[in-house]
Amino acid sequence: MAVIFAMAGSAIGLGNIWRFPYILGEHGGSAFLIVYIAATLLLSLPVFVAEVTIGRRSRRSAYGAMAALESGRRWKIAGALSVFIPLFILCYYSVIGGWSLDFLFKSVTNQFIRQTSEEVTGLFGSFITSTWEPIIMHLAFLAICTAIIAKGVKSGIEKFSKYTIPVLFVLIVVMIVYSATLPGSMDGFRYLLDPDFSQLDAKTFVYALGQSFYSMSLGMGAIVTYGSYVKKKENIVATSVGTAISDMLFAILAGMAIMPAVFAAGMEPGAGPGLVFCSVPYIFSTMGAISPILSSLVAVLFFVAILAAAATSCISLQEVGVSYFVEHRGMTRKKAAWLLFAICGSLGVVCSLSFGPLSGVTLVGKNIFDLFDWFASNVLLLTLGFIVAVFVGFVMKKEDVKDEITNGGTNRATGWIFEVVYFLIKWVAPIGILGIFVTNFLI
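Request: output the structure for the sequence above.
Response:
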């Protein structure tokens, strides 16, 4: 059961709180939300089941899982890709974690109280465009995650995830209730709940699937690795459905907490990666006019929660690389964890500087940070997700897949349930992913 919490912790993370609201704001609001839900249920959920199936069947981490089930150089390459992708994401993801850590300190020192929306936005802008402060926070955050993961899955990741997930849900609900009281907040709720299908375009589908994969930690090797720890008695389908629904619910709740505040503050919903760090402090600023003590308390709790969300996902990303170095290079967990800290921390410094001294360095109109994020979400994750679906649907024996999904025919996933899940994995997921992947380069 503890590993199930670890998988949920991997899926429910900063991608829901930080990334989902601003991607939704940039690509159609509630119309995007509908596409996102459909993409999660029809494409991401089958891939999640497939990744857990590979992990549990092989009892290997992401690097060696497919090669253990089917020999061939191409599956070793796929394994190498599953190690590279999460570490690539970790390089810039830990920068966001550093932002969360800094804003926790700002909330402790009451820097949000009685500030205008412009002042709050300026507070974030001055922070990310500076040189040393965001770098220090990025490295501090990554060091915290490294220390946790060095303890091992059982003593570190599982315990950490078990207690943080319920706290995250409670705090987001509190934020929704208060956001609803802000003048102008109803426009934000309408933006989320009243779909305008004229906003739909090819980008909506591309970014919806990319966000779904990103949020559920698919195509990163993380779920395959966690799947290798899942006991044979666990119901893969039930676990996957529960994780997908929890992940979607949390993303929607995060949107309902943040978007009303965005409209109440007169901000643009498509303001980009800093949206949550501008809109949420505005909530605490208005709350401070009512009760400074309450404002400070809720602000601290929120940024503790968002820091925990960042850490759970960061830990799952790093775990893939750590498992590789432990299993295939003979390193101890501690040495592997700190080696990855050095590598990803260094590249993260470059991503951090892309908002400051290196802001003028761009490629295809994107700075270094945005380029990392786009390439990971819209290219790398979809590529590995497609490979996973094809592997389970066409390479693994159907009997072996059925044996894993139905626990040897002992759970409720037998019969028509298995056939539906298998059809989604074999046909719907790869065709859908391929179509959206190609569209990504045509828009």
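The chain is about 80% helix and 0% strand.
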